[in-house]
Amino acid sequence: MLHSMENVANTDIRAINERIAQESAFVDLILMETGKNIIGQKHMIERLLIGLLTQGHILLEGVPGLAKTLAIKTLSQSINGKFSRIQFTPDLLPADLVGTMIYNQQENKFTIKKGPVFANFILADEINRAPAKVQSALLEAMQEKQVTIGENTFKLEEPFLVLATQNPIEQEGTYPLPEAQMDRFMMKVVITYPTKEEEQLIIRQNLQAKASTINTVVDPSQIVAAREVVKMVYMDEKIERYILDIVFATRKPEDYKLPRLKPLISYGGSPRASINLAMAAKAYAFIKRRGYVIPEDVRAICYDVMRHRIGLTYEAEAENITTENIVNEILNAVEVP
């Protein structure tokens, strides 16, 4: 009986594998188109795709000039989506983001003017520059996938991806995102400088007479359909337990033979961390053209999903210990299935 069940499971996984091989073909097309404009930064592009495939929003951190804006703009061109860039400033108001009611004198009534948040791809540039009121207006749109103007509520179009950037250098006159709001972002991706070879190509590309044209290779409806396929990616119970062990180790490190971490962590990952690790691992397997999740998928996206979900104590900051160091120790200690 057990043998026949195993056969059924194997056939199922084979069927899922074949379906994913067909359905994920557009991933290569997107990578090819974005590669015309973006050199290197494969990590960032893959994370943007994971966000798209799981309805997760992304927080990007990196110094200016690392092609954050260019990346999302290029992605939106390749997907035939509507792109909005909102530059966050201290004097921004929620109405500047979601829209407002405007009085029309001829018709003697109020009409609604929709704001830039009504798009498929939102680039919230330097989100930590805007006051809390504006940040929470954006977070409502992210969480509820809808916007309220006056007494009217509007559903936002799918796919809807918010990419918020933070500049890690400047702290002057900024409003850091509260921990609870950070948790709303599926991943926090840290972008580093390109290599010497990559930067040489970037120079050449920018000195070319003609900019590359980005072709539309995917329709938004294909992305929405692919999300359903991502959910079908097989995740074994052992992988689920592995994800739970990683998250629980941030809450009770002493249970995982990591008593050293106890005084360094002020709070661990919430259940959102577990959900997002599972979702991102499935999407990562999908991008890699696989119908099942392996431990390597979890490890690959673990830093991006966990780095903004662990609170550090003063002791950790005094010792210059980062959340990456903590995630690293946990991954080394937790048993891999």
Describe the structure.
With 337 residues, the protein is an alpha/beta fold. The chain has helices spanning 2-23, 25-37, 42-54, 68-78, 94-98, 132-144, 179-182, 196-206, 220-232, 237-251, 271-287, 295-306, 314-318, 323-333; strands at residues 58-61, 83-87, 99-104, 109-114, 121-125, 146-149, 152-155, 161-166, 187-190, 265-267, 311-312. The strands form four sheets. A five-stranded parallel beta sheet has the order 2-5-8-1-9. A two-stranded antiparallel sheet has the order 3-4. Strand 3 and strand 4 form a beta hairpin. The protein is globular.
Features:
337 residues, alpha/beta, Rossmann fold, Helicase, Ruva Protein, domain 3, 14 helices, 11 strands, 15% strand
Which ranges are low-confidence, i.e. pLDDT below 50, for 5 or more consecutive residues? 1-8
Helix content: 40-55%
Q: What Rg, in angstroms, do the CA atoms define? A: 22 Å
Number of strands: 11
Distance between the termini: 25 Å
Number of domains: 2
CATH architecture descriptor text of the largest domain: 3-Layer(aba) Sandwich
Q: Tell me the name of the CATH homologous superfamily of the largest domain.
A: P-loop containing nucleotide triphosphate hydrolases
Kindly identify the CATH topology of the largest domain: Rossmann fold
Q: Report the sheet-strand fraction.
A: 5-15%
The major β-sheet equals: 5 strands, parallel
Average pLDDT score: 85
Helix/strand class: alpha/beta
Number of helices: 14
Order of helices and strands: HHHEHEHEEEHEEEHEHHHEHHEHH
CATH class annotation of the largest domain = Alpha Beta
Q: Order of strands across the biggest sheet?
A: 2-5-8-1-9
